[in-house]
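tool_call predict_complex ligand=2-acetamido-2-deoxy-beta-D-glucopyranose
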Amino acid sequence: MKVLILVLAYAFLGAEASSSRHQWKQFKSNFGVRYENLAEERHRYQIFQDNLRKIEEHNARYQLGLETYYMGWIKVKVTMKVLILVLAYAFLGAEASSSRHQWKQFKSNFGVRYENLAEERHRYQIFQDNLRKIEEHNARYQLGLETYYMGVNQFSDMTQREFGQMLRGKGVAALNRTPAARPARRLHKQGRDDFDWEDKGAVLDVGDQGDCQAGWAFSATGALEGLSIIKMGFGYQLSAQQLVDCAVPEGGSCADGDIETAFKYVIANGLTRQADYPYTGVKGKCNATKESFVTAKTIVKGINTEDDLERAMFSHGPVSAYIDGEPLHQYQGGVFQSKACSMNETRLTHGVLVVGYGFDDSIDMVFWNVKNSWGENWGEQGYVKILKNTNMCGIGKKALFPNL
Ligand SMILES: *[C@@H]1O[C@H](CO)[C@@H](O)[C@H](O)[C@H]1NC(C)=O
Ligand SMILES: *[C@@H]1O[C@H](CO)[C@@H](O)[C@H](O)[C@H]1NC(C)=O
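tool_result ok
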């Protein structure tokens, strides 16, 4: 039995005095319900009254804090015949105890600590706002009104604005947290068809930049890893830390680097393996004492259309690109598209790696498969699918890759 939820309306919170007959009229008019005959209508009215009583009783308990969600009317269509059901829906009302529980889980999952109670209260408030946004967005996703879904991640105690500022290296990151424990990486993802360097073994593990805004460095190491695997048949995870320490001048911060400078550094100095120069997530002094694993010869830049990006990725390997990362704040899966995602050059500050493209036939959409550097817990095991052919988030506007 396939159930299609058509309309979600009328939460009954605080609905008291109005008679059931009045509500019945309102219900019929709101949902354009007609019955074949009077007997059927009487029968349905009886059911409606029963449900109404159930809703009111439940919501009274909700008011007293004994329930975590409230009930309302819903119209549900079962195949051809319209039936009227009233369902419990864990949606807007699912606050109080549930959000406190999720907050605890969030803090424990991501090892988050706050300096004082005032800060914790403030962050909890933001977390609740984000939770509401996620729930509302995902309800729309369930109804087929969105093509991607959201979820709680390590950024859920920040506002989107703060998140954007952090990405651009503008402070904020005074959120005292220890690195998250990570689950094992799911090695093979299904449903990524068409063309993907990941399937060809040319993409290594997802990095986690932490509070160090070094998306550019992970984008660069990803491109170099891919190209070295394609060229030599094997490769290693390369050192993003070396780029942070050595391609950014002393006194600079993680956010002061960029992909092109990283490639230039590699052309001049080579790059060692991550195992020999591990990631610390803070800008340190350059200490490149170990042997380089790769060097590069030239940089191909100026890729500024999605067609060129596709050609470059197809014929060379994974390609580095800049996107507007801010709207990806709570992304968890599906094909990302949002009006809030800018393609204005000034917003294209977050470095990522374009590793493939595919087609999602459930929503009839093509997407780029993009490797990010916010850990494997973020998005789809560290990846995001970005809608293709609309320059979503500016993905095709500012891409580049090196030649080895
Ligand atoms: C530099 O790296 C080497 C290992 O490659 C290490 O033994 C040494 O202590 C490091 N020096 C500094 C100053 O961190
Ligand atoms: C891009 O953003 C900048 C700064 O916000 C603005 O001045 C510029 O007009 C924008 N460009 C376009 C093409 O919208």
